[in-house]
Amino acid sequence: MAVVGKGRIGMTNGSLPRYSTSSCLRRNKLLGMPVLLASFGWICGFFLITASFYSLLDQKQHQQKLLCDNDGCFPSITIYAAPRPFSADKLDLVRARQELAVRSWLALSPGVDVVLFGQHPSIIAFAGTLGSRVTVESDIDFTFLGTPFFHSMVARSQASRSDISMIIDSETVLLADILTTLHHAYKLNHDWFLFSKSLDISHFSFQLVDNGKQWLRKDGKKIKFEKLQEYLVQKQQQSERFLMAWNTGDLPLHAGILPPFLYGKGLHNEWLVNEVLSSDLRLVFDATEVVSSFYPEMLGQWSHKYLPHAGGVAERNWEYRGNHHLAALYGTFFLRQNNTPSNLIKLVKCFGQYYFINQAKKTVYFLQGPNRHASYSLEPVSSREQETLQLSTRFLHFWKEKKWKTCLEDINSLDKERKYSLLTSYKVSFEVSVPLSITFSLESLLQMIADEDKSVVLAVAGDSYRDMLMSWVCRLRLLAVHNFIVCALDSEIYHFSVLQGLPVFKDPLAPSNISFNNCHFGTECFQRVTKVKSRIVLQILKLGYNVLMSDVDVYWFDNPLPFLLSFGPAALLAQSDEYNETGPINLPRRLNSGFYFARSDLTTIAAMEMVVRHASSSVLSEQPSFYDVLCGEGGVNRVGDDQCREPTTNLTVFFLDRNFFPNGAYKGLWEKPDVRSACMKLGCLILHNNWISGRKKKLERQVLSGLWDYDPSSRLCLRSWHRTKFMTNF
């Protein structure tokens, strides 16, 4: 947008009778009261300083979707939404609402692009029917149930190159006045954040046709924009849906971090608005009165053919409890007062003109600039400009102060009538002592996450390894490996995993008093913890699932499961801990129980029962029990240089090729200047971060090597678009 001048905010202080949101204003917003051209011409001629902001695009200009006009060029806008998956083989109200919403967004302007967050095939197919301006973004964080994380959505939106980013409910329809509102906000030379609450319309029978240029009634006749807005006013109800937009500027949206809220599970919108206001870094506008947006509960042709499916809510209440838990722990949301924040500015429109009302300060701001291509500022007016300001104020007083005040009074009356406050519409119980838990048993989790071969990847972790667990999880997500499950050794890592959306279960027999920094190889803590792993693996095998046991300090370059499945039944495939580059790799006590694959067959189950029984009576860790049971003490059951055969069950143990499955001492890979390149050149599928003593040293080595995929400070998986530098405490 061309910028050749600066403007100022004019302000009128003092005894305005009321300063709230208005029925007159709502009516002006929705009925779009036209400004007489003759009056406008007189204003522009007499006071050029106010002309640029008061000159608005009419509905016809919006429908023509012009990228530029005499008032400048429209900024580029990207709208982000997270659609709900839907049934592709039958009539579906969810799809119908989402299609109407997205088409209304695209109709705003050719400069509007749409990004849909999702992984489900129905969303990908849906986007393919809407044209090249609609894309699907799956490279964000999701829970194991497919729910997107709100903090990941916001982070991805902030990485946008568009001038303006917007996050909106996927079933909320937008009308053209949002474009004018955003266009004027974008002129300000200060970073800003805008939010608006949408309407609920119980039944919406109009259709959007002609590439979004026209709305039709049920009888096929056209309906004017003003009449459509009048209909919405008559049918409106309270809604809990938000839209939020901001310019791509230099300032962050808020101070601090955004917790890992689950999108659509309550409080995340209110929390973010509150934190943006509390941080006071950006101008914050409540644009509810000047943005026409609504959620159609029922569409005309769907009323009797489809009823929304409401099942499964009770089973997923933990998602809402998790969001409440986070809202109580982070930020200042639970400390907020019921009074209007002193820096909240309500954006309103009277007689076709925009005004900014600060109710707490009892101040009305109006934009003024030197010409039609001005950049507008919210800085205080300098002393030498006071004469112009006073003249503008007197002119406003003499010409239409009465009408103006009447409009604002009507606004306030409607506000009081509705008793509505955006930030106090929730009464939240901030009880954080209630333990969080998911409602799924181990059996049900296995049914949900196992792949088509009935195979799962198992990790066992305690709270001391939470960052390494998440880096491991992020890496598997990047590789599209979603059939993993986490066994929590303590309550802390269990609750953390629930909030991170992981398929987690807690072992009721796990040892207590697990040391935070002293539970590495060779310690008594390590010996107790490792015995949990073989016992859980046996439990899962007995439930009919193959198990790839992987410690969280194993870095995956690629998914090894296809290779491991090629070995067939009655075989256990394990990493070798041998560090010598030549010679046998199945020497005594060289079987590493931190990475192995076991099939759910009778032979393997019988052999694993022997291992678990032996480990339970041993004073050592489980690792010696694996070798002594399967390969015999001293290696009497060895076959060649890379196998063993357990004689009782006839189970064959294959020690995996170390070029593909290297341990932490093999070929000094961890000491290479570029660990990733060295491993890829070798053909590694994984690299174990073992053969190092201590949690801190292990963590430091992995982070500094670049084989790290998690930002603990933001609780986000690192992505190609990720701008934030992460920090971790070694």
Automatic annotation (TrEMBL):
Parts of the chain that traverse the membrane: 35-57
Keyword Ligase assigned: no
GO molecular function: glycosyltransferase activity
Pfam assignment, any one: Nucleotid_trans
UniProt keyword annotations, A-Z: Membrane, Transmembrane, Transmembrane helix
Residue runs in coiled coils: none
Domain Nucleotide-diphospho-sugar transferase: 481-701
Official protein name in the record: Beta-arabinofuranosyltransferase RAY1 isoform X1
